[in-house]
Specification:
Strand content: 15-25%
Radius of gyration: 33 Å
Number of helices: 4
Shape: elongated
Low-confidence stretches: none
Length: 272
């Protein structure tokens, strides 16, 4: 009954269906992996407020040479709550322009904190508005405190798509906080992640940390798996129809058939 499945046409259809299903299952597995990764990030974000801070030097690899960046930490270390002690270097302070907090455009003020061993980590001290409330005028930001300070915050990985760095308003000015590019402007080795300060000084707003949309990846995983099952079911349904002879019938041209028999074409007649 199903011997037709061994014909070249059906064997090719079977191979295509299985290959498509395998690809869709793999895509679903990849989305599930992303779901677990993003869920772990959300867990670290939620747990950071109550978790004890650990020394930054126990998480990040020490950078080697001045003007260079230390090793970039893994994704699983993002948002780790850390503590670090050093002295702020206001002469190399950075303003990241065009940053939005609560629908307001302003600046993030990032200041190098120099550790006792001569290395430095960039500290995002928070968000401040511009002088005139626009995205162009200089930011209104108080200078960092002098002397030794201890900062507690969460690790933030370097931002992608680096932008140009220039001097403006007495600070280094940039659009993106790209650590590889900013490290070249520093006279000391720089750690491979920066820190969002948990308790900014007066006049600064804390940088909000957005949660990852992990449920979207979970939904995509289920969708891909369903598509794989549907492809196999569609193949089985077509095979069953073929086995039962349930194939579309050839349409008959009644005019041509009547001409061949030499008979008039039957028409419907309305009773008198």
């Amino acid at each position: 009954m199903y011997r037709f499945l061994l014909t070249p046409r059906w064997l090719a259809a079977a191979a295509l269906t299985v290959a498509a299903s395998v690809v869709m299952v793999l895509l679903g597995n990849w989305q599930l992996h992303r779901y677990h990764e993003r869920s772990a990030i959300n867990h670290r974000i939620d747990a950071a407020d109550s978790a004890p801070a650990i020394p930054l030097t126990s998480v990040l690899v020490k950078p080697a040479a001045a003007g260079t960046l230390g090793a970039r930490p893994g994704e699983d270390q993002a948002w780790t709550k850390v503590t670090v002690t050093g002295r702020y270097d206001a002469t190399h302070e950075i303003q990241a322009r065009g940053r939005t907090v609560e629908s307001k455009v302003g600046f993030e003020i990032v200041t190098p904190l120099v550790l006792p061993d001569g290395t430095a980590v960039l500290i995002d001290r928070g968000w401040v508005p511009s002088r005139d409330g626009d995205a162009i005028s200089p930011p209104v930001a108080s200078p960092p405190p002098a002397g030794d300070v201890t900062v507690v915050g969460q690790l933030h990985l370097s931002e992608s798509h680096p932008s140009a760095v220039s001097r403006r308003d007495g600070r280094l000015d940039t659009r993106r906080i790209s650590l590889p590019r900013l490290a070249k402007e520093m006279p000391y080795p720089v750690y491979g992640a920066y820190v969002l300060q948990s308790d900014p000084a007066e006049g600064f707003s804390r940088i909000p940390i957005d949660h990852e949309d992990s449920w979207q990846n979970g939904g995509y995983a289920v969708q891909w798996w369903m598509f794989a099952v549907m492809a196999l079911l569609a193949y089985g349904w077509q095979a069953r129809r073929e086995a039962q002879g349930d194939t579309p019938k050839k349409r008959v041209d009644r005019v041509a058939a009547a001409d061949e028999r030499g008979k008039p074409v039957p028409t419907s007649r309305v009773p008198d």
